[in-house]
């Protein structure tokens, strides 16, 4: 018995259920986990819980399949990947419905339909981005060309917040460069990744891409396994550090996309009304469960109160409820653990004298893991709501008066994924941006991603780049042919 969705009247989900049931995952029904929706915590389907033995089967299949996949060459792999993107387009609505049911994000806005559509976009972009050999020297002193070759087998381990899309970010460039991929999804969002895999595996040759749906021990086994030349990991900083240790014996190459605590800096010339919507979605996209979301907002004292008022005015009209009900634009948190983290951080800030400008008063007994959009003021940099990653819908807003001082405060954390500067003067905002220690700094927006623009963290947010040409190089090994 394979992964399946329990009875659904929704025709999109029924179609996806058929694709999922057609997959060849061998599972022991007695070990199947229950996946839950976020209202009433009702079961929506069943996913296999696989083991390290299943990982060995996947690795053997990848070893058999990879040489022929690499030998196809870029043009033929791209053609097959474009077919896979079309398959994703055909099943996009079904995948979006599943993500909304399983992970919880709303269908519309920057939600599940965006995520499902993004899978096809990233697959297409990876398929069509040119990567030519680079002639580095060609003169009397010599002739040298830098090429990028397949690594072999890539291990991909992903988190639960954008399950299908993050899985695609790891998969698509790896495929393009001629690698086979063995992937481990997060336990909370296994079906979304299995569904994405079932869709693209209608087109990909057998063994090129296999999902092993186990827990953290399967992730650790991937990381230590000598078959993997590269591990792509997206998740928390503590797990990333453990992966870096585990991968060291085999010197597996690593891309580590880890946690963040992104600061936004609002300069005194910003227009509070004009930036409120961008600030809101920068922070509250996917109910705050986004790696590069705005997690601390520093506002110049002269416009602080106005910015808070505009943010509250915008936020209080954004409907929250089950993601699969069309009217909602904010969904629940994905699991009880994350709900507890957010609630604890807000309660601690309250106890320390913070003001709750909006939200902050959840009904803990209500079904589902709903935490209201919360805006917190009168909070200090020492508050854990500011110094820790909340990964949820609670935004602390802090005052500043001096630019050098606020840049130092923004940089005073050990992570550096994203950041943003908000101003009516883009040129001066860019100057400030250059001083912010993070892999990306946005101007008058936060968290916007583009499949051709490299994305990655610095400091404890990890290393390595995804997307664009840099993302292709990251899942390849360089080879110089000299002479
Ligand atoms: P997590 O680190 O708990 O889990 C991520 C994945 O790692 C899961 O599949 C998990 O089963 C697996 N895993 C657990 N222990 C492992 C081990 N010892 N070895 C190998 N794999 C192991 O993260 P999460 O709670 O699922 O996701 C939330 C975190 O991810 C947040 O910190 C968030 O900021 C971060 N994140 C970062 C990015 C980015 O691009 N930088 C994107 C999304 C999420």
Automatic annotation (TrEMBL):
Keywords: Oxidoreductase. Residues 40-476 form the Aldehyde dehydrogenase domain. The active site is at 257. GO terms for molecular function: oxidoreductase activity, acting on the aldehyde or oxo group of donors, NAD or NADP as acceptor. CDD domains: ALDH_AldA-AAD23400. Pfam families: Aldedh (PF00171). PANTHER family: ALDEHYDE DEHYDROGENASE-RELATED. Belongs to the aldehyde dehydrogenase family. This is Aldehyde dehydrogenase family protein. It comes from Pseudoclavibacter chungangensis.
């Amino acid at each position: 018995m394979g992964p399946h969705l329990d009875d659904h009247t929704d025709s999109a989900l029924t179609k996806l259920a058929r694709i999922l049931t057609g997959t060849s995952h061998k599972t022991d029904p007695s070990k199947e986990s229950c996946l839950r929706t976020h209202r009433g915590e009702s079961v929506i389907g069943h996913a296999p819980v696989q083991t390290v033995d299943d990982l060995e089967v996947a690795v053997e299949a990848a070893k058999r399949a990879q040489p022929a996949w690499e030998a196809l060459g870029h043009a033929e792999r791209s053609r097959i990947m474009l077919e896979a993107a079309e398959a994703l387009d055909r099943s996009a609505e079904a995948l979006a419905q599943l993500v909304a049911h399983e992970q919880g994000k709303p269908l519309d806005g920057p939600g599940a339909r965006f995520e499902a559509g993004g899978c096809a976009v990233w697959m297409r972009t990876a398929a069509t981005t040119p990567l030519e050999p680079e002639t580095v020297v060609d003169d009397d002193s010599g002739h040298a060309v830098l090429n990028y070759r397949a690594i072999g087998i890539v291990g991909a381990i992903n988190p639960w917040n954008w399950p299908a899309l993050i899985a695609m970010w790891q998969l698509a460039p790896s495929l393009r460069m001629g690698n086979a991929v063995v992937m481990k999804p997060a336990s909370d969002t296994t079906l979304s990744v299995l569904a994405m895999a079932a869709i693209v595996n209608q087109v990909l040759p057998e063994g090129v891409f296999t999902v092993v749906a186990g827990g953290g021990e399967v992730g650790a086994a991937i990381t230590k396994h000598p078959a993997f030349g590269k591990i792509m990991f997206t998740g928390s900083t503590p797990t990333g550090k453990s992966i870096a240790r585990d991968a060291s014996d085999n010197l597996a190459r690593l891309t580590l996309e880890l946690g963040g605590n992104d600061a936004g800096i609002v300069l005194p010339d910003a227009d509070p009304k004009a930036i409120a919507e961008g600030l809101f979605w920068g922070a509250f996209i996917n109910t705050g469960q986004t790696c590069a979301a705005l997690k601390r907002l520093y506002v110049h004292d002269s416009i602080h109160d106005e910015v808070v008022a505009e943010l509250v005015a915008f936020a209080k009209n954004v409907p929250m409820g089950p993601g699969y009900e069309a009217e909602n634009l904010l969904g629940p948190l994905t699991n009880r653990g994350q709900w507890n983290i957010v609630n604890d951080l807000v309660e601690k800030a309250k106890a320390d004298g913070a003001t709750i400008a909006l939200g902050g008063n959840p009904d803990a007994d209500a079904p589902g893991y709903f935490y209201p959009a919360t805006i917190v003021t009168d909070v200090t940099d020492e508050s854990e709501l500011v110094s820790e990653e909340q990964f949820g819908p609670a935004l602390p807003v802090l005052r500043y008066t001096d630019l050098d001082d606020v840049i130092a405060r923004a940089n005073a954390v050990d992570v550096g994924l994203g950041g943003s500067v908000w101003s009516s003067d883009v040129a001066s905002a860019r100057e400030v941006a250059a001083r912010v220690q993070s892999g990306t700094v946005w101007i008058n927006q936060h968290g916007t991603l583009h499949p051709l623009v490299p994305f990655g963290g610095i400091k404890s947010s990890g290393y390595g780049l995804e997307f664009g040409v840099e993302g292709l190089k990251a899942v390849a090994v360089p080879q110089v042919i000299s002479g």
